[in-house]
Design a protein that fits this description.
Among the domains are: 27 residues; 50 residues, no CATH class; 67 residues, Orthogonal Bundle (DNA polymerase, domain 1); 60 residues, Orthogonal Bundle (DNA polymerase, domain 1), CATH 1.10.150.310. It has 14 helices and 4 strands. The chain has 320 residues and is mostly helical.
Length: 320
């Protein structure tokens, strides 16, 4: 009542002002209520979703980069360890070089020599293990030069060991087949010059497999080992054991990739050279200007020993 009396005691203009102000306040409250209750704008939702997607892509890219950096660091660490081992193999803990022990050479067959025997011939423990691992993956040394292909056997080491390797310099394949009890009425097939018709003469190789063998030869630039047939879909160890003895390989005509002259796309076409390896090769070339020899590829952190042994027969380095 007291408030009403106060209101009535006001002039007519003051009363109207209070009424108008009250109405404005009421309208403001109602409008604010409906604004808060209105559904979110579709455009606002699209912007939020796009922003969230960009954020997720950013974090995914960061995670991928972190993994790649970890891989590169690990590869670099392994390379430094290999270089350290190779450089300090003849140094004791005190840092003073020890005199290399004299080597007593003896006749040996690299197909069955033990780790200790390889070490007696001058190889380090790591090198001896590398030869044995290469052997365990299925490699068979048929000639002296086959042993020279192992990446830990340097030219200087091979020159010293060659007279003591109890393997022939070359193989008379016809005599070998007779000793193995294999029919020799048909001549052996040279893998790099054979066409599909010749390949199908071998039992176990049909039209599909012969075509795959020829197509893979073209992609590689030629075979340097019969064991490369194991890369082909449809040739497992069982089938390989059946057909291996029918083939010989002349690797003298391998198509080489020039590290200094061929472009990125040319290298990328080779089955053994994945994108990240080709990229690393070109990054290394940018740093050093040009490769002085194929051996320079081993300095690339991502090129581990087994990969180098696999790709090096297909590489050359022309120096302008």
């Amino acid at each position: 009542m007291k408030g009403l009396k106060s209101f009535l005691s006001l002039t007519r203009g003051e009363q109207n002002a209070i009424i108008v102000l009250s109405i404005l306040i009421f309208v403001a409250v109602i409008v604010n209520f409906f604004i808060q209750k209105r559904p979110p704008n579709v455009m606002d939702q699209a912007i939020v979703i796009a922003w969230e997607q960009d954020v997720n892509k950013f974090y995914a890219a960061q995670e991928l980069a972190a993994k790649r950096n970890d891989s590169l660091r690990e590869a670099s660490k392994q390379r430094r360890e290999r270089e350290y081992t190779a450089h300090y193999a003849n140094y004791p803990a005190g840092g003073v070089a020890t005199q290399q022990k004299s080597v007593d050479y003896f006749l040996f067959d690299p197909n069955d020599a033990t780790q200790e025997e390889f070490m007696q011939l001058g190889f380090s423990e790591k090198q001896a293990n590398a030869i044995i691992n290469y052997r365990e993956k299925g490699a068979i040394f048929r000639t002296k030069t086959d042993f020279q292909k192992v990446f830990v056997v340097s030219d200087a080491m091979f020159e010293k060991l060659e007279p003591w390797i109890s393997l022939p310099k070359q193989i008379n394949y016809e005599e070998e087949m007779i000793e193995m009890g294999v029919e020799t009425s048909k001549s052996l097939i040279e893998l790099n010059s054979a066409d599909t018709t010749q390949l199908k003469q071998v039992k176990g190789i049909g039209s599909v497999l012969s075509r795959r063998i020829v197509e893979y030869k073209e992609k590689l630039g030629g075979y340097y080992s019969v064991y490369q047939l194991l890369d082909i879909n449809g040739i497992d160890m069982e089938r390989f054991a059946e057909i291996e003895s029918f083939f010989v390989v002349d690797a003298s005509g391998l198509r080489k990739i020039d590290l200094n002259r061929d472009d990125f796309k040319t290298m990328l076409k080779h089955p053994y050279l994945e994108y990240y390896i080709v990229k690393a090769i070109f990054e290394q070339k940018d740093k050093i200007g040009s490769f002085s020899s194929v051996e320079d590829v081993r300095k690339i952190a991502l090129v581990y020993d087994d990969l180098y042994a696999k790709i090096s027969p297909y590489l050359t380095a022309t120096i302008d």
